[in-house]
Specification:
Length: about 90
Amino acid sequence: MNGNLIHKKSSVGFKIIDGKAFLIFLEASPAANEVFYILNDTGTRIWQLINGKRTRQDIAKMIADEFGLKTAEATIETVAFIKQLLSKGLAVSS
């Protein structure tokens, strides 16, 4: 499961303003508990790195390198955040 590629859900629109990603569901979704999300700097960077060609581990490694974190720490935080995106229906894995 952790090796799966992560994709942004096509029914989620986003715009980055002042370094923060604003996400909104573009259509009604049973998974949508909220319709609007604002991500912090790290969450925004993770969102930017999700392109359907990277796994959770790929993204965690990039976050570790960019933010000067230990890979293990970045992996824990990145995987937890991606799980939240998946559970909220904002992203999917394949």
